[in-house]
Amino acid sequence: MDPAEKPEKRIYNVLLFVKVNQEYYTLDKQQRAELNNPHVTQLSEHLKYVSILSLQGTGLSRDVLVEVLESESLTEIERMIETYKAGSKAQYGIVENVMIMEKVMERKMTGRQSGKRERVQRQVAV
Questions:
Q1: In whole angstroms, what is the distance from residue 24 CA to residue 92 CA?
Q2: CA separation, residue 47 to residues 19, 24, 32, 61, 86 (Å)
């Protein structure tokens, strides 16, 4: 396949930058569980089409949470975001930014073999 061509299956990655309300950290373990359990149940309806990964902590501000969504369907990602924004945790997290990326070229399409680096030499005219 020519690297300029897009693969038939498109994979989308979406980064949700969520600002966490400081009141969330004042909740005790029981209150967080009561809040999180319905949230997880609501989002799990979309896991057939969308995978989700949450990042918080190291290298990020304490009040920032990054949700990474991946799917072959932007429509399914949009539905999951709407569920996320309308869910039980919505009062403690506001989606501030959204980045949408599309994987358009697989590494094997570049002609390089994985694990091997090519040395490129260039001649410079003086």
A1: 6
A2: 23, 25, 22, 27, 17
Contact between residue 75 and residue 58 where contact means Cβ atoms under 8 Å apart: no
* 2 phi/psi in degrees, rounded to 5: -70, 130
Coil vs helix vs strand at 123: coil
Are 118 and 16 spatial neighbours (Cβ–Cβ below 8 Å)? no
Angstrom distance (rounded) from CA 77 to CA 67: 12
Q: Which amino acid is at 92?
A: Y
Could you say which residues of the chain have pLDDT below 50?
1, 3
Q: What is the pTM of this model?
A: 0.69
Tokens of 81: 């975001």
Amino acid letter, 66:
V
